[in-house]
Here is the input.
Amino acid sequence: MQQRVLEHPGLQQVMDANEKKLLQLQQRRMMRVQAEATPQQVTIPVVVHIVLDNPDLVTDAQVMSQIAVLNNDYNATNPDISQVPPVWQPIIGNSRINYCLAQRTPGDEPTTGIVRVTTAPGRGFDISGGSPDVKYDKSGGSDAWDTQKYLNIWVTRLSGNYLGVAAPPGMGYPSEQEGVVVLYTAFGTTGSVGRIYNLGRTTTHEIGHFFGLIHIWGDDNGACTRDDGIADTPLQGDNTYGCPSFPKTDNCSPNFPGIMFMNYMDYTDDACMHLFTAGQVGRMRDVLENTTRSLMSSNGCTPVILPENDAALIAINGADGKRCDNRILPVVTLRNKGTNPLTSVRILYRLNNGPLVNYDWQGSLPSLQSTSVTLPSSQVPVGIYNLQAYTQLPNGQPDANVANDTVASKFHYDAEVQLPFEEGFEQDSFPPPGWDLYNPDRSFTWERDRNVGSHSKASVLVRNKGYNVNDQIDDLITPVIDPQGRDSVFLFFDVAAAVYSDPDMTGNVWDTLQVLVTKDCHQTLNIAYNKWGKNLITHPTALQTEFVPTASEWRRDSVDITALVGKDKFQVAFRNISNSENNIYIDNIRIVSKDINPDLRKAGVLVNPNPTDGLVWISFYEIPTDLLQVSVYNAAGQLIATQPGNAIGRNNRMTFNLVNEPNGVYFVKLIYRNRANTIKLMKVR
Here is the structure.
């Protein structure tokens, strides 16, 4: 967490606010009537993601041994609780928090609560930022189950000499990263567990962090300036390794009974960890009952009883978000949630309040298996739509669970626009009509600022300074634009940007602004513009406050997107890649076309100016794929200059310089694979 604050200073405010909240909850708890009933017993569903090159190294028995340890440690029923010194026996805490391996998935299907994912051989995961890579399928890990309903534990190989790391709620982590990560040889009490950390106390420790506890020494490096926020734990200078003898004193607690090295929130060996205090339990209950209250009401520990016939729709594709043409082809994911094989089902869908479209599916789908079903296509006019699909009569029988029959999606088909196209974000609606946002992490993204603009009242920006996760992308996408066969397309826009770090810093990862062109509705994109750091910013020095550009801190940029557009319909995406530096603004977008010389369009290639006084351009209407070389000869047949066919620039042009050549007649010879073309050229002064 300290490392994350260094990378994202704004997180300190989030963490400070969370600590203030916990202290207020603690004060309220201390003021309650002492006779108040003890906290209720709760059971929290756990999903264990085993992410290893050989996930079978961690057996089911090893997972079950860890759950048993948690239930003992969090209820003060661990066999070694008797080893707590008598002076601290009265303050042993019982959290009444129990743990079970999840019995049902987020989709209400039976599960063992154990997920196994195979990684590349020998792969280990870095703990930086809470070890996020292990928490996503796309980076070789395993996606979290709903963190509002499950406590996610990732068991893996960690790089470096680390045992585990926690990502607690309320500390600025994305919700899908909340949970704990534990080294596979420090997990449980059997199987692949190692020698010293072999009693499951690493997981006990990390879940303590998850529920709001910090290290017992306060992470102040022995300075005695910071406590752990718990009244009944002694002040302690630094962490404790090994297995000391009681009593042990230090610079912060020099007198008997000294430091509580046997507390789960120290670093002693597993065999010498024995307790949470009542104060620590109180803080954990505060977090559980306020910050993570949904875990208490989760049904994840309740087993699922499957009916005989249950057909469910769990997803719909092909008719969601922005559509770039008027034809929709819905594809639903059909899942058999019954015990009987699914051999037939009726699937129906409708758009808005329109007529129902029926599709009778037949096949053989085993229990708890899925298949994709393509439904009949439809064509829609410009508009906003809600598509709803549902199932009926699985195997010709009534559906046992109608609650999972229906899926819905919203999409919109917008009118195409033509060139010239302009947008200054002066209207209140955002994104503007026909525009779209791509915000995969559902966090900060492009937004309208109604008070800041370049020679205008408004603009759009991404608040990178507030982002707490690196390398997140956010796209602001134009409507579909029809160039109507125009020869060239140019983009102009105003930009303003600043950075938090020193712009001269080497090796830093900067916020990046890209302009991309897509011709298939954001499926594939090609980069036309890519700037970051000193090449992007308009405020020349580091700025630790939020950047708001003055009138002089805007720059007009232009991009030739002709080669990426061709003659096809297209969209432009303005992509922000955040690395937590500072705000990036854009305004006054203008996309225009230029028509090519009609002689060039007719001939396909043009030498101009002709006559020339020096520089000569060989322009091509379209880049030829079979051009081998272009050469210039004088009237005597002597070679003056030559260039290979692949030397044509992005503007479909080659350049020759005849400034130092005498006046007279020259010949430009274009050599193709199976032909040649010679064009006469005059040089005059």
Notes: Residues 311-413 form a domain with the Immunoglobulin-like fold (CATH 2.60.40.10). The CA atoms of residues 185 and 193 lie 4 Å apart. The mean pLDDT is 92.
